């Protein structure tokens, strides 16, 4: 059987930066509260004319360049996003068009924050079975368009950005294993209506609704169990992991997962302070930063894990 590995990665952050001090002028909050409860200091905000596919295609171009291939070599596009350009066509279709590779199968996946991990998992299956050679996996979000800017419990948390990976077929294993899960029984704790007629709830306009404290507790428990599941599946111990690259939702959730791995934050890639929670973009954004500054090197074993609305959760163990 063939293996898959990450050949190249890229990311993109919009220019505009919103600080906690800026947010103090918008809602009843403080830099101290946001920093202590979430670890977030700044987040990037897309320009009015930037869609998820605009951000995603910038990250994709960098990933393709980093992979040293041509866009025409891509034979599948998978996009994780909770904030697609439209309900249809998918943002993946738009990204394919912007890359000039119409005809290549392209689809979005609606798995909230674990979108990138789910995307890696799907890419891995298509490549291992020999059906595809170079799959572009993108996580891209314009969550600033979805939050209610009068709701201090959510608007301080989220940010915009995109990250992408080219996953290719390989003789050597790169993606060692992926593990994906979902439980719709928790749907009421974190959701976003789509605004369709006849489906109106308390919040008919599309916006993120979150019972943060309850989400927090399940997230910590679930992420801890997926660390165990991943290590067991690979017959590995905590010491075999070089880097933990968690979804960047909240520094306290990240610290709890690091503790589970018996790791200090020096083995964990943290960008939540600068990016906020960028949902499906957060892991590739974090990974790109740690590759660029030389922390993550080729051959390092990286544990990617994420949790989000659904609930959905998942992990990918990769040898970069
Ligand atoms: N500024 C000041 N005070 C605030 C703010 C704010 N921005 N937001 C809430 N508060 C207040 C609340 O009103 C509450 O006040 P009260 O005690 O007078 O009622 C108090 O702060 C505590 O509120 P909690 O919700 O209990 O605060 P908590 O410590 O749980 O932190 C947070 C909230 C940051 C949202 C946290 O629960 C969290 O990170 N949850 C997990 C989020 C997550 O991981 N989501 C999944 C991924 S997202 C996705 O899938 C799209």
From TrEMBL:
It catalyses: malonyl-[ACP] + acetyl-CoA + H(+) = 3-oxobutanoyl-[ACP] + CO2 + CoA. Residues 107-184 form the Beta-ketoacyl-[acyl-carrier-protein] synthase III N-terminal domain. It is found in: Cytoplasm. Residues 231-320 form the Beta-ketoacyl-[acyl-carrier-protein] synthase III C-terminal domain. GO terms for biological process: fatty acid biosynthetic process. GO terms for molecular function: 3-oxoacyl-[acyl-carrier-protein] synthase activity; beta-ketoacyl-acyl-carrier-protein synthase III activity. Keywords: Acyltransferase, Cytoplasm, Fatty acid biosynthesis, Fatty acid metabolism, Lipid biosynthesis, Lipid metabolism, Multifunctional enzyme, Transferase. One of its GO terms (cellular component) is cytoplasm. Its EC number is 2.3.1.180. Residues 248-252 are annotated as: ACP-binding. It is an enzyme of class 2 (transferase). CDD domains: KAS_III. Pathway: Lipid metabolism; fatty acid biosynthesis. It comes from the Bacteria. Belongs to the thiolase-like superfamily. FabH family. Homodimer. The last Arg residue of the ACP-binding site is essential for the weak association between ACP/AcpP and FabH. This is Beta-ketoacyl-[acyl-carrier-protein] synthase III. It comes from Kangiella sediminilitoris. The gene is fabH.
């Amino acid at each position: 059987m063939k293996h898959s590995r990450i050949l190249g990665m890229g990311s993109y952050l919009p220019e505009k930066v919103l600080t906690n001090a800026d947010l103090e002028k918008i809602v009843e909050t403080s830099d101290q509260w946001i920093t202590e409860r979430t670890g977030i200091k700044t987040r990037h905000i897309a320009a009015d004319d930037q869609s998820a596919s605009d951000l995603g295609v910038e990250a994709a171009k960098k990933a393709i360049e980093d992979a040293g291939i041509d866009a025409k070599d891509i034979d599948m596009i998978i996009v994780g996003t909770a904030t697609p350009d439209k309900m249809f066509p998918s943002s993946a279709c738009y990204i394919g068009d912007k890359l000039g590779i119409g005809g290549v199968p392209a689809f979005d996946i609606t798995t909230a924050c674990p979108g990138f991990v789910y995307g890696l998992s799907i890419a891995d299956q298509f490549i291992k079975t020999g059906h595809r050679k170079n799959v572009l996996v993108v996580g891209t979000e314009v969550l600033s368009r979805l939050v209610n800017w009068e709701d201090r419990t959510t608007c301080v948390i989220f940010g915009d950005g995109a990250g992408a990976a080219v996953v290719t077929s390989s003789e050597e294993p790169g993606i060692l294993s992926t593990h994906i899960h979902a439980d719709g029984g928790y749907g009421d704790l974190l959701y976003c209506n789509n605004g369709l007629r006849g489906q109106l709830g308390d919040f008919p306009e599309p916006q993120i609704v979150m019972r943060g404290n309850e989400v927090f507790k399940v997230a910590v428990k679930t992420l801890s169990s997926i660390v165990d599941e991943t290590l067991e599946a690979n017959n590995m111990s905590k010491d075999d992991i070089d880097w933990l690259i968690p979804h960047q939702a909240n520094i306290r959730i990240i610290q709890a997962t690091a503790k589970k791995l018996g790791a200090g934050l020096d083995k964990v890639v943290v960008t939540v302070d600068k990016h906020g929670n960028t949902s499906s973009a957060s892991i590739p954004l974090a990974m790109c930063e740690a590759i660029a500054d030389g922390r993550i090197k080729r051959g390092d074993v990286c544990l990617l894990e994420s949790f989000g609305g659904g609930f959905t959760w998942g992990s990918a163990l990769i040898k970069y």
